[in-house]
Design goal:
With 152 residues, the chain is an alpha+beta fold. It is built from four helices and four strands. A hairpin with a 4-residue loop joins strand 2 and strand 3.
Length: 152
């Protein structure tokens, strides 16, 4: 049973953003300050990546621990458990399909977990790696940017 009213729960759920989250804005701002240029949330690209550099054939997804089922931090709600398990499972399956799509087309698909950029030092390291990737077009290991190996 939910501890808050149906109306309040609806209000909370409607406030969750699908794009331009605080983390996305901070990440893009930091990249822009380094001179990195990109497109954001472009519907032109499969899976609607958070950041795209078409010239370098790189897409970046900033994945929240809850919505994308992080094995370390995803805590399932206590109510409507069947719904949430199914929802997270479908999201993970979709993420794997998107990764496969870009891999088959020789694009670099980078998935960054929310928990990998919460810490200020980790945030700076990740920004540097992604910025370098956009300037060089190559990434030595997807795992260095917090990609879940089950999705790659």
């Amino acid at each position: 049973m939910d501890k808050i009213s149906k109306e309040k729960r609806g209000e909370v759920m409607r406030a969750i953003r699908g794009k331009d989250t605080k983390i996305e804005i901070a990440f893009r701002t930091a990249l822009w300050k380094l001179g990195t240029r990109y497109r954001k949330n472009s519907g032109k690209f499969y899976g609607r990546p958070d950041i795209v550099n078409e010239k370098r054939r790189v897409v970046v997804f900033l994945d929240s621990c809850f919505w994308h089922g992080c094995s370390l931090h995803c805590r399932m709600p206590k109510s409507h458990l069947d719904f949430w398990r199914g929802k997270i499972k479908r999201n993970k399956k979709r993420d794997a399909l998107v990764n496969k799509f870009y891999k088959e087309r020789d694009w670099t698909c980078v998935r960054i977990w929310e928990h990998d950029i919460i810490n200020k030092n980790d945030f700076k390291k990740t920004i540097k790696k992604v910025s370098g990737l956009f300037s060089k077009g190559q990434l030595t290991s997807n795992a260095t940017l917090g990609i879940d190996p089950n999705l790659a």
